[in-house]
Amino acid sequence: MAEETLTALRSLMATHSPPLDALVVPSEDYHQSEYVSARDKRREFVSGFTGSAGLALVTANEALLWTDGRYFLQAEQQLSSQWKLMRMGEDPSVEIWMADNLPNHAAVGVDPWCVSIDTAQRWERAFYKKEQKLIQTTGNLVDEVWTSRPPPEVNPVVVHPLEFSGRSVEDKLKDLREKLVAWLYNIRGTDVSYSPVVHAYAIVTLASAFLYVERRKLSSEVSLYMENNGIEVRDYSAVSSDVALLASDQLTPSSSAKETERAVSDNLGIYSGKNRTTENDNSTEEESINSLVWVDGTCCFALYSKLNVDKVLQQSSPLALAKALKRLDKTSAFYVPFLHSNRTGAFLCLYHLLIRLLPSFAFQLDYCLYAPSNKTIAFLNPVELDGLKNAHIRDGAAVVQYLVWLDKQMQEIYGASGYFVGSEVNKKDQLKAAKLTEVSVSDKLEEFRASKEHFRGLSFPTISSVGPNGAIIHYSPEEETCAELDPNSMYLFDSGAQYLDGTTDITRTVHFGKPTAHEKSCYTAVLKGHIGLGNARFPNGTTGHVLDVLARVPLWKDGLDYRHGTGHGIGSYLNVHEGEGPHQISFRPAARNIPLQPSMTVTDEPGYYEDGNFGIRLENVLVVKEADTKFNFGDKGYFSFEHITWAPYQRKLMEVSLLVPEEIEWLNNYHSNCRQILAPYLNTSEMEWLKKATEPIGA
């Protein structure tokens, strides 16, 4: 099948105008989503590789797949002999490979809706020397050969209640006039697996707001909600032509929406810069304002191509930060540019926003709002942060209930010594009639979560991995091929859920038999890094790139490391991975972009993976908060982290002699908080188990 697909693609490449020397097949959909719908899994269809991150390149004679360190083992197992694995960080990047290996004047095709501006421009820079060209295909060539491509799903759009969103659409529009569509409009959907988002685009000005979505997804109630909030709904396919109108300053609301625009304009003191009649005379004053389009580099390349590049201001949007922050004030402010107008002699804050649903956006600066140059925009929404904390408490209770159940099952079915005792398996007691698999136990974990208030589904496919499978960093078990649980092997589970009040993500690694000294040493090194990062105190202005090393130092001491970042952002009933922006904790250069600020959420998840043997990862969600330090050097302000994930760390996997007193003290305090916080959600037997799992560790 893979060979037939490649043959068909190469035939289309040869007959394309112009003929293509190479075809890029990204993982992303038209909204640059991390997780995509079944019909958008083009790279998976072409290559057979099912990981969430990667890029395929097809030439006349070769087929290559790039992916990062999380998926090296998985890709080796899934790629056929027709494909060559390119390891990111070890092999040449895709743009360097294309520039070096494709001929002069080569034509490289890509669907421009599936690639970001930053990525496309990076490729074009690499192509410059040999005059190679990036060609935007008129359609998606993979779709033409994918005869069994799943049909589009029509899933309803729902309004996210104010009790969970914390702010009304009216308030959000008035204060900032834009964030991200799902966050701004307080809407959610199920168009993307594991992420409660809607396939949609938006154009938002200070006076108008447009939503581009399939109308079949909107009930009469949701349509009325949009109308009441001054949002004009247009067909999903109209966004391309409307962006072209936006670029030429010809985009206007429908006649029914113009009254709303005028009311908003009057309320905010906005003028459009066109044919404005003054009060002093009857003449018409022609305002000449140089329109700019501010484009975030992660915006879709297809929409960017509709704009006049001479009027594009390309840089990271400060509005992404407002979504990352659960509050925004003078100590955690972001700044928007204030452009000076010689005509008015005042600073003008100019907005006119074009954005897409998931974290990419561009906005045009051509409507005017008077504002002092030293004014920052403040944002306060404690509802989202409180909801996130509450969701993690319920989720922690589900994880504890799962561990209680799994501990009992492992002892009864396999004769394991269990969660607390580290001894050999009693093979005489094994019950051969029953068995547990990576899939069956992850399904049970989902059952526990589903019983909790406000549960809406998983936040990503559960990573349930035994022994060697744990070394596949983003392993995804399949019912037909998954492994059976083994009491003599490590078990890693990385999972999370979507609740109406928050999104969760947690990882624990456990052993139900007798761990080896090597396994305990590795687990303890990971735990020490996890504690070291979580206990960090750092000055205002510190990025996650600086902090990443804190989680690695204990591993480095033993010559160990891991091939993934240490922390990503968490959405508020949105995407579980906000790791590509604006903030993250990682060795990757992107982690230098945005400093960590109070109320940001970020994960703390170091690990160690030994090919063919086991994997270890520990993960909590943290909230950045102001730190109470003895001094305040430079009057910068200092920050620290608050853990909001609650589940025990396994005592028998720790080599306590390797822990310092401060680490033991932290573990004892954390476990004490686990008992107190989770007690209301557990029954008597579950609570007894948790008490035993969180007994204080002696120094």
List keywords for this structure.
metal-binding; six-stranded mixed beta sheet; alpha+beta; globular; single chain; 699 residues
Summarize the SSE layout with pairings.
Blueprint: H1 2-15, E1 22-26, H2 42-47, E2 55-59, E3 63-67, H3 72-78, E4 84-87, H4 94-101, E5 107-110, H5 117-127, E6 133-136, H6 141-145, E7 158-159, H7 162-165, H8 169-175, H9 181-185, E8 187-188, E9 201-204, E10 209-212, H10 220-228, E11 232-234, H11 239-247, H12 255-268, E12 276-277, E13 284-285, E14 292-295, H13 301-304, E15 312-314, H14 319-324, E16 327-328, E17 339-341, E18 346-356, E19 361-370, E20 379-380, H15 382-414, H16 438-450, E21 455-458, E22 463-466, E23 490-495, E24 497-499, E25 502-503, E26 506-511, H17 517-534, E27 538-539, H18 544-556, E28 567-568, E29 584-585, E30 601-604, E31 607-610, E32 614-617, E33 620-626, E34 638-643, H19 661-678, H20 684-693
Report a brief summary of the structure:
Residues 430-626 form the Peptidase M24 domain. Helix content is 31%, strand content 20%. With 699 residues, the protein is of the alpha+beta class.
- Report the end-to-end length measured between terminal Cα atoms: 60 Å
As an assembly, this protein is: single chain
Q: Please tally the β strands and state the result.
A: 34
User: Spans with pLDDT under 50 lasting ≥5 residues?
Assistant: 176-180, 270-290, 328-380
The radius of gyration is 27 Å
The fraction of residues assigned to DSSP E strands is 15-25%
Major sheet details: 8 strands, mixed
The average pLDDT value, as a whole number, equals: 83
Q: Can you tell me the overall shape? A: globular
Task: Return the structural class.
Answer: alpha+beta
Helix content: 25-40%
Please count the helical segments: 20
